[in-house]
Write a structure and sequence with these properties.
Blueprint: H1 3-34, H2 51-58, E1 63-66, E2 69-72, E3 76-79, E4 87-90, E5 98-99, E6 102-103, H3 108-119, E7 122-128, E8 133-139, E9 143-150, E10 156-163, H4 166-173
Antiparallel strand pairs: 1-2, 2-3, 3-4, 4-10, 5-6, 7-8, 8-9, 9-10
């Protein structure tokens, strides 16, 4: 082989490599847009937002169970009267959704510390013998959170969040 034929062969191989590299560089920005951000699974970001926005951001398939109640079977329940999300319940077996950074399967003491940062104190504690769990209640003027954990393992099994719209309640009473 002479120098010219070797040069052409290398030039052709480099040309194909450069085209593939450019194609990869053009596709990468689109792939990052397909991912769901971890903050999209923090449910408190959706309080007062529409169910459609929740579905779009989390790419979840919810079914409407009854008027204003939506479910992700075996994982999550949303209550959205008048279309705006007001309450969440995360059920055992779904570790992706979080409330104030607390997720199902998290250690009880770690979960309690995160909630105490927000709510300052526990309002109530209930032992549920039939479920073999303990439920702690945390309240402030705007919301209420129920944290249930298994007595034996100390792992969070259920989380519920309720937004207390006190302003609307006062207007309704007047």
């Amino acid at each position: 082989m002479n120098k010219n034929s070797m040069y052409r062969k290398i030039k052709i191989e480099l040309g194909h490599s450069i085209k593939v590299l450019l194609l990869i560089l053009l596709i990468i920005p689109f792939l990052s847009g397909c991912r769901v951000d971890e903050s999209d699974y923090e449910l408190t970001n959706y309080v007062g937002k529409s169910v459609d926005k929740f579905i779009k951001k989390t790419k979840s398939e919810l079914t409407e169970d009854s008027n204003g109640v939506y479910k992700l079977e075996g994982a999550l329940q949303l209550i959205a009267p008048k279309g705006d999300i007001r309450s969440f319940t995360i059920l055992k077996g779904d570790e992706q959704f979080k409330l104030f950074g607390v997720a199902i399967g998290m250690n009880k003491t770690e979960a309690e510390l995160k909630l105490l940062e927000i709510y300052n104190a526990e309002a109530n504690k209930t032992i549920e013998a039939d479920k073999n769990s303990v439920t702690h209640t945390y309240r402030d003027k705007d919301s209420e959170v129920y944290l249930s954990y298994d007595i034996d393992t100390g792992l969070v099994t259920e989380l519920s969040y309720y937004y207390l719209d006190t302003e609307s309640q006062q207007e309704d009473e007047e």
